[in-house]
Specification:
Elements (H helix, E strand, L loop, with lengths): L4 H14 L6 H5 L2 E2 L3 H11 L7 H8 E2 L16 H12 E2 L15 E2 L10 H13 L3 H18 L19 H12 L1 H20 L2 H6 L5 E2 L2 E3 L5 E3 L13 H11 L4 H14 L22 E2 L1 H20 L3 H21 L1 E2 L4 E2 L2 E2 L4 E2 L9 H5 L4 H15 E2 L2 E2 L14 E2 L1 H13 L3 H22 L6 E2 L4 E2 L12 H15 L1
Antiparallel strand pairs: 1-2, 3-4, 5-6, 6-7, 8-11, 9-10, 11-12, 13-14, 15-16, 16-17
């Protein structure tokens, strides 16, 4: 496995990103070196001494720009959004059987989100699969699940996406949910048996550090494991490195410099951990809701993460039952029950009547209302009374003209108000239906679909995020709004078909 660009190119990488040779920091880390990196670095160290040295020209001569394929399909005025989604699967499909620069090869074809995101992104994939399933693309789904099984065997984890610079962090662990989705078509016994070893690898990755966490003097946490006051191990988002993110090197340096913190590495770690959460960035992770410089992601036991790990434990238990390993099945069933009880105890705020992240240093819930609070309904962890309270809060505070808003804070971060995101609409709708709140679920579905369709008529595009308050394309974040877009397409297709039934 080649080194990530920041390690392989060192001072050249730093110069390119600091000088902003490219408007998007992801451009350079996705470029492919022409020839051997050692030779390029030798030439750079020699040529940069010249008074007329041109860094941009040097990069053009020694690297191939990433080729983000432009869509070769344009919808007509009569194409519906649903037809557009089906037509886009071929546009977003990639096959990559050998490593290229920072891109890691995968054995099977996959669907990318679109735009600058030209890889198989972890949590995006689950929501993209909803649309693939609606269109009967089970072969693609199977291949994408097998790609993750391959990465778990090779890397011991599922990285954010198949790039070398993502190998220190993952994303919300939806792998067991993908296995369950695939089992609907391929059969439960066959699918659970095939992917049990992979699910165990995923579990080991997230639980690594649990013994050290129980003995840790710092926040009772180690890596992604957190020892709660009663001894239960819950989890947080983390990253195995504490340097600026290669794809956002300049932005992270600026944030750390402006934070006036004596511990810049901690700032970098928390920025990376927020990226692992998928919520990069959000007031959810800030001590001051308006200031990214106060980011403290690793200080929170994340409610969504723990609900997904509960589902992983439950699925592993079921898989062991399938192969008649009853003692191991019981072990994971007990682990799941203990985690569920801990989520209900530590992440429930009886004042707000909502699930929240748990702040490790204070020993209390965060006091932040976000759509992460619907994950206990999605996972089936909430009690009936808790589910009722969450449903009432969603309808009262989160429901907008275009669907559910991500948080109640408007601070220009993309995972805050006024933005809404397809995956969170899906999680909320499924969660509400799990507890019988079908009418509210349908209202959310219908408003989200209408927003998608209105923007599609205006732009002929499906977008990464939407402004659910003002009924338009979303905004905010470190890069322009992207079109494509994998998880929006997947959720739209599945919900549109559901609406017609």
């Amino acid at each position: 496995m080649p080194d990530p660009p920041d390690e392989a190119l060192r001072e050249l990488f730093d110069a390119v990103q600091r000088q902003r040779i490219y408007a998007d920091g992801k451009t350079f880390v996705d470029m492919r070196p022409i020839g051997k990196v050692k030779s390029i670095m030798k030439a750079y160290r020699k040529q940069r001494q010249k008074p007329d040295f041109d860094l941009a020209q040097f990069i053009d001569q020694n690297f191939l720009a990433p080729q983000y394929p432009a869509p070769n399909y344009q919808p007509t005025n009569t194409t519906t959004a649903r037809e557009h989604v089906t037509n886009l699967w071929g546009v977003l499909r990639r096959s990559n059987r050998r490593d290229r620069g920072s891109l890691i090869s995968l054995p099977y074809a996959y669907i990318t989100p679109g735009g600058r995101f030209d890889e198989q992104f972890y949590w995006d994939t689950y929501f993209t699969m909803q649309g693939l399933a609606a269109d009967g693309e089970w072969g693609l789904i199977y291949g994408m699940v097998r790609n993750y099984s391959y990465m778990l065997r090779k890397l011991g984890m599922i990285p954010t996406a198949n790039r070398t610079y993502f190998l220190s962090r993952s994303q919300p662990p939806f792998f067991s949910n993908m296995v369950r989705l695939l089992a609907e078509h391929n059969g439960r016994a066959r699918t659970f048996t095939e992917f049990l070893p992979s699910m165990l690898s995923e579990y080991r990755f997230w639980m690594k550090g649990k013994k050290e966490a129980a003995k840790s003097v710092e926040y009772s946490a180690y890596l992604r494991a957190v020892a709660m006051p009663d001894g239960t191990i819950l989890n947080r988002y983390y990253d195995n490195r504490s340097t600026p993110r290669p794809e956002s090197h300049r932005e992270d340096l600026i944030t750390a410099d402006e934070a006036n913190s004596a511990n810049k590495n901690r700032i970098f770690l928390d920025l990376r951990a927020a990226a692992e959460s998928g919520w990069d960035f959000s007031s959810r992770w800030f001590a001051d809701v308006d200031d990214i410089r106060t980011i403290e992601t690793t200080n929170y036991v994340a409610v969504d993460l723990n609900c997904l790990l509960y589902q992983l434990e439950k699925t592993i238990a079921e898989a062991y039952s399938v192969i008649k390993q009853r003692s191991l099945a019981r072990r994971f069933e007990v682990a799941a029950k203990r985690r569920a009880a801990a989520i209900r105890h530590y992440c429930w705020n009886s004042q707000s009547n909502f699930f929240e992240d748990y702040k490790i240093t204070t020993g209390h819930v965060s006091g932040r209302l976000t759509l992460a609070g619907v994950f206990p309904l999605f996972a089936g962890v909430a009690t009936n009374d808790q589910a009722q309270a969450v449903a009432e809060r969603l309808e009262k505070d989160f429901l907008c003209r275009g669907g559910l808003v991500t948080t109640l804070i408007d601070n220009k971060q993309q995972w805050d108000s006024p933005n809404g995101w397809a995956p969170l609409q899906w999680v909320a709708i499924v969660g509400l239906r799990n507890y019988g709140y079908d009418e509210l679920a349908e209202t959310i579905r219908d408003r989200w679909l209408e927003l998608n369709e209105l923007v599609f008529v205006e732009t002929q595009k499906m977008l990464e995020k939407y402004d659910v308050v003002n009924i338009r394309a979303g905004a905010g974040g470190e890069y322009p709004v992207q079109d494509g877009f994998g998880w929006t397409n997947g959720v739209y297709a599945a919900l549109k078909d559901d609406q017609k039934r």
